[in-house]
Design goal:
alpha+beta
Length: 144
Amino acid sequence: MENITEKQRESKIQQWFSMWLDKQDTGIENLFAPDAVYIESWGPEYHGSGKIKLWFEEWNTRGTVQCWDIRQHFHKQDQTVVEWVFRCAMDDGVIQSFDGLSLIRWNEAGQICFLQEFGCNENRYDPYAQGKAPVFRKERALWF
């Protein structure tokens, strides 16, 4: 059993984010437990470090992560929450940018065994700015 510190956890999270920014796998199968579960904010779910690696490699043939900046971390027992800002450009011209959180659980070996993302539209507004009746934008909601 490995007892990893909060700083080591933060370093591992930064390693994961940097892999995306650099489009380079620097140890996915060591970072994630063999039976890890990864849930993206918009629905896809990957089971096992091998599937997470497959997703990473395939996704990076279709897009580029331009920004994935960490704002802060919160730690409690075997869990970490990280707040971040994300931006990517897909090869088809679609650009996505949003704020998010990741809920991470660590196993006794210091690997990520569960990661679930939560996204928040960065283009926010006050629907009550004009008065007591809400005025909502006439736009398609994003995927979260």
